[in-house]
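Hey,

The postdoc asked me to send both predictions to you directly instead of through the lab channel. I've kept everything plain text so nothing gets mangled by the mail client. Protein one:
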Amino acid sequence: MEDSLIELDYLARSAGAEVVGIIRQRADRYTPTYVGKGKLQELQELLEEERPDVVICDDELTPTQQRNLESALQYKVIDRTALILDVFGRHARTREGQMQVELAQHQYLLPRLVGQWSHLERLGGGIGTRGPGETQLETDRRLVRRRIQKIQEELDKVRQRRNQYLERRRRAAVPMATLVGYTNAGKSTLFNALSDAGVPAEDQLFNTLDPVTRRLDLPAGGELLLSDTVGFIQKLSPTVVAAFRATLEELHEADLLLHVIDITHQKAPEQAEVVEKTLTDLGLGGKPRLLVINKMDLLTDDPNEISADALAGLPELTAVNSPAVSGRVFVSAAKGWNLPALLEAVQEHVGKALPASETAVV
């Protein structure tokens, strides 16, 4: 529970909120108000004292739970899914990414519309309201469905163009590798170190929402297409997963996945397990993978002395003991340590790429 709450705090701050209080409850059964009577009273007392703008729950609430809790507290209540979608909305930079987030927000909103509502009052700014709330979109079920249909039609056109681009990439016969990993594991920092792409690599969750691809020269000749993608996190609902469909397409197209792990994180094994489980759930459990053990500069001062003792002290990553995982490379993306060895390992796994002169233009 504590790890999840720490992430929720981080998510809230990524959405521009300041956390003024936390209440914990262990429950093993469904309750109409999400929390029990005692915790509900405790929460009411905390709200009276702190006067926050919103209450955030660390699970996806059912529409009934959300309405009941808002009624009992007389406060706006959002859940983890709404918060993640809000952060997505802040970081979506491409038109496709923005439309995909808006689609996910509307699909999330639809079952939460109360039958007697004829319209949604302007919600104003703040977390949990980016997208549909800010533009005062019609919210009766018929109009929301119409908006969903329109976005889907626009996305279909975008995806047709994306498919044409992917087909050109396939014809070019340039091998493709994609970075995956837990959010904030250092994927974008590694991507920049390898490609000089200048992708934002701030200390924020989901800072990379839209996939970015660059060409790299491989050590033994030839080229590689390397993609950076959105990070995974625990408790990803299907609604959230659908919001980064472009990332999923990149993962399926890749010849090799580079699973980046922040080995200094106290929950590195659990984070690796979340990533591996998510890949399996997405039908990618058999996709070839190479482990990239990142942030070694925080464990040693000398890149040439990653000693047996240092490696022996690393946490056991039992979750990645899969036949699809065929090796690991220890690096520091921030310091640039061991990146040539990483590219050599990638080339060994994907095979020698075609020389640039023999590739098609993509």
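Protein two:
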Amino acid sequence: MSQPNSDFDVKIIVGNEPNVKEFNAHSTVLNSCSLYFERALSERWRDQNHGICIIRMPNIHPTIFKLILDYIYIGKNICQISGEVSLDILVASDELELLDLAECAQKHLIDMFSPWLFSNIVASLNIICLYSHFSKLYNHILNYVFRNPYSLFDSTGYRLLDEAALICLLENDDLELEEIEIWDYLIKWGISKLSDENITNCSVKNIIEWSDDHFNILKDTISNCIPLIRCYYIPNHYIDKQIKQYHLDSTAFIKFETPQRRCSKLINNKNAIFPSSIYSVPFFGFKRHAYFSKTSSSFIFSITDQSNPVLSRIKSEKQYVAIMNDKSFGPCFGISDLCMINSGSWSSKRENY
């Protein structure tokens, strides 16, 4: 069925001034597409003018709605459109509850425009973190950032990252950055927002010249993110050097309320700590009598020197041997990084962490 120029019973007014356009449509076609149109065309929502139902959609750009209407009426595919337009179609199809189109746009973005998504990572994150129910695209973009964090945090557009997107990243355990790095990037992001408040000449380099207003605005800016910093991973000398300087009273005792994370267990007098997820990760490999499990969240944490603890994460290319168990020994982290060779006896040789 082609789009109607006559014999229509629905007029759709799309966009905001100065970009407003009217589209004609059939109620029978729209009703069959989604619950959104079914509700919009109900008696309760209906805004009639000479027997024509009028629907207003100020949140959608006319160009995007034209493509959506083409898809509804003639099944026009979206293979020839750009990544940016595909993302706009995804958002609009979610609002209009066009589930098939949303799934199509999501797949199209992953298959055809991953490089574009990653090169525009800030814009991609700002949008997709609001639509986590698009799980395939959501996980696709977040997993890229987790594996390549510096592509985001060292980018010139990092300051434009929305708070919701930043929180989305900090809430996850898979971000491959040391906690002190995450703190530094949070401060960098917070300071960049001060310029949005028309506060000039504000940087880490001239922190001794900051006023109380500088500190208070920075505190308010990053207050929702601070509880997500796992401060127990940060050595004491970094806390003195890189955290206390942002406290109005530098002589004050600072107490951190750290978020709940996976439970860990002290396993020997050398203070090596490992996550309890060892018992929840499924074992999939087989080598003689040894079973391996793949995970990206495994780590070894040594606090032999309490002033300078060491955190070793599994190497990305070695995740398939992150945890090993055997009938006669184990558990082991990696092939030999930390291994129980018999009851109460441990060996350690760095290899996979």
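Summary for protein two, as requested: The CA atoms of residues 34 and 98 lie 6 Å apart.

Thanks,
C.
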